[in-house]
Amino acid sequence: MIRRLAIKAGISKDDVVLDIGSGKGIITEVLASIADSVISLELDPKLHAQVREKFSGDSHVHVLNENFLLYSLPLKPYKVFSNIPFSITSLIVNKLLFTGRVPEDTFLVVQKEAADRFMGKGEGYLFSLLTQPFFDFSVFYKFKREDFTPRPLVNVVMLRMRKKKEPLIALNLREQYLDFVCYVVNQQKPTLKLRLNRLFTALQYYRISDELNFSVTSKVKDLTLPQWISLFERYVSFVDSEKKSITGGSYSKYRKVTSGLGKVTRTKARRPL
């Protein structure tokens, strides 16, 4: 099954692929047979020793005994294909997408509930606003519980996160966009109008709400992604540099929360049959 999924994912001899939390090297072994090179990360010393011994004669498999959360991501283009520890799923995803060395394509075995959040459902609203202008998210494969031994108690999927060839926000405006969204969403005020009142005048806000077709009493989560992008474009055009300084640092505050290093455990789905 792993080989079939890796081939379906488009892993080829042109690719450098990262396997996070490689365990006994089952996925690493499959990737080694179809990719140009594989970087296999395993924090557990005993498992790392097993994998290092297993690939000791294979020069294009690089086996590292490192904590992924402290690892410097590759500078050259790479992909990720991995069954990651569920307990640090959010930390892993945030590092991959927000630290600047972004993979071209990512395939992660995760809990379905986590995949739903990353795709913008429920508590994932802010995350989706920050990422969907730059990445496409989808469920690449839905596992059956009998695909694993022993069977997991949760539903498991393979989440795909692919970098957009043409981002919806110009890359030179990315930092401003991230600050703007974090500033607005993280405020504890009931309506969008109240959250924007330091940036737009009342007249500007009424005009924008009319142009973008949302109610003047809308709440943050009432807006769609296209409306947010259009709202940001108005922010870039209408708001002067002094007012823009109000949003500065908002994204950094968000990152301090989402990139904190927690205890790394090996809670993850057992390998597919």
UniProtKB/TrEMBL annotation:
Coiled coil region boundaries: none
Keyword hit for Iron-sulfur: no
InterPro entries registered for this protein in UniProt: KsgA/Erm (IPR001737), rRNA_Ade_diMease-like_C (IPR023165), rRNA_Ade_Mease_Trfase_CS (IPR020596), rRNA_Ade_methylase_Trfase_N (IPR020598), SAM-dependent_MTases_sf (IPR029063)
Keyword S-adenosyl-L-methionine assigned: yes
A molecular function GO annotation: rRNA (adenine-N6,N6-)-dimethyltransferase activity
Superkingdom of origin organism: Bacteria
Pfam families: RrnaAD
Membrane-spanning ranges: none
Protein residues bound to S-adenosyl-L-methionine: 1, 21, 42, 83
Keywords annotated in UniProt: Methyltransferase, RNA-binding, S-adenosyl-L-methionine, Transferase
GO cellular component term, pick one: cytosol
Domain Ribosomal RNA adenine methylase transferase N-terminal: 1-165
Family: Belongs to the class I-like SAM-binding methyltransferase superfamily. rRNA adenine N(6)-methyltransferase family.
Matching PANTHER family: DIMETHYLADENOSINE TRANSFERASE (PTHR11727), DIMETHYLADENOSINE TRANSFERASE-RELATED (PTHR11727:SF7)
Name assigned to this protein: rRNA (Adenine-N(6)-)-methyltransferase
Organism: candidate division WWE3 bacterium GW2011_GWF1_42_14
